[in-house]
Amino acid sequence: MTDDPVIQPSADVSDLAAIGVRTRVWHLAQVREGAQIGADCNIGRGAYVGPEVVIGNSCKLQNYALVYEPARLGDGVFIGPAAVLTNDEYPRAANPDGTPKGTDDWHAVGVTVEAGASIGARAVCVAPVTIGAWALVAAGAVVTKDVVPHALVVGVPARRIGWVGTAGHPLEAEGDDWVCPVSGERYRETDGTLSAIV
């Protein structure tokens, strides 16, 4: 068994991209110049990773996920099928005078997804936003504001309806605490943020 990345012949991976050990890039995926993908990642069929995007270790981009520059993904991030991380606050194809917009006509802004967070299928994160560590964005949600760590957000626009633990399951209220039904981890909510009880 080798530590080399596995890149399918039909994938379009720039020679100027850095692909970590044991990472797999599947059929029809595109990884652009300057992108950095960590070790043990899975880049699904038809996924897109823009120029200079940085992806941590042990991340998973499901089929047809679109991650536009200058996105930053921490370790262990999950991006669901057909989810989109945008990069343009004021999108236009052409300038007011009718000339096509070029790279000098706009300023790319990115989405930051912190360690362990998950973005559900067909969700859209509208840059610039930060998705906090271990947060869960539900399928089809549209995120227009920052999401605090461990938040469970749903809807259009996305709003918090609960909390999730590091196992990804919704936490259950138990007195003043929030408890993970899978791991037993306990958390305490203070002023709209969640902290682990150690």
Report on this structure.
The protein is an all-beta fold and 198 residues long. The chain has two domains: 6-164, Hexapeptide repeat proteins (UDP N-Acetylglucosamine Acyltransferase, domain 1); 166-198, no CATH class. The chain is 0% helix and 32% strand. It has a nine-stranded mixed β-sheet, with no helix packed on it. Strands 2-5-8-11-14-17-20 form a seven-stranded parallel β-sheet, with no helix packed on it.
Short description:
The chain is mainly beta and 198 residues long.
Overview features:
198 residues, mainly beta, UDP N-Acetylglucosamine Acyltransferase, domain 1, 2 domains, nine-stranded mixed β-sheet, 32% strand, globular
How do the strands and helices of this protein lay out in sequence?
Layout: E1 6-7, E2 12-13, E3 18-19, E4 24-25, E5 30-31, E6 36-37, E7 42-43, E8 48-49, E9 54-55, E10 60-61, E11 66-67, E12 72-73, E13 78-79, E14 84-85, E15 112-113, E16 118-119, E17 124-125, E18 130-131, E19 136-137, E20 142-143, E21 151-154, E22 159-163, E23 172-174, E24 177-179, E25 186-190, E26 193-196
Parallel strand pairs: 1-4, 2-5, 3-6, 4-7, 5-8, 6-9, 7-10, 8-11, 9-12, 10-13, 11-14, 12-15, 13-16, 14-17, 15-18, 16-19, 17-20, 19-21
Antiparallel strand pairs: 21-22, 23-24, 24-25, 25-26
